[in-house]
Amino acid sequence: MAILIVGLAVVTFSVRAESPPDATGQVEALEKVLHTLLAGHADSLSDAGQFLHLANVYLDLGDAYTDENKRRETYEQGAKVAQRALALEPANAKAHYLYAANVGSAAQLQGMMASALTINEIKSHTKRALELDPDYPPALHMMGMLYDGLPWFLGGDGEAALTYVQHAVTADPQYMRARLDLAKLYVKRRNISAARQELQTIMNGSRAGSSILQHPAAGKTNRSFLYVV
To answer: Which residues of 29-38 are buried (b: 16+ CB within 10 A; e: fewer)?
Structure first.
């Protein structure tokens, strides 16, 4: 059967918050972290945690770059190291999530088209992350936004989208990007009072110092990692 080609203009699965373009010092700081991680032992890494750290940094760095070619190449590198983590720990929820997030981010930059096979791969790894950790907020958010952005013939489901994003917010009430997307989903359903409540929570969080662009860390570890989800 021929591979179904879907225009990204139709299938939008932007599931992660990106950093502000040229955020002060962010690119330089992330490149320094990447250089430190790779310096002297790039070919000798053997620990899944090291690969996940790298995949996380590549993901953040791809978000921080403004040049699309550099972004795509960076996400592709992130996918490769996440895949190496998966080879070592196939039952690691973060590895499945980081692989899906990097692949999905690269796919968004491919231009007009992404294959249904790529979309199914992203869904498969996100689903597996949730099988391993049902309350993992970034994977919940990603799955919800996939269901929201995909057309019905590729598995889009508006009610499933709402359920997943609600679960992400319940799992991590400080996950402001998920709250923003939840508010948008409520607006789609003309539930203005619920949307207003989410936006008010975001505003209150902003006053308290939280940023809508900050994400809960994967597994609550220390990180610069945007909740990628």
So the answer is: ebeebbeebe
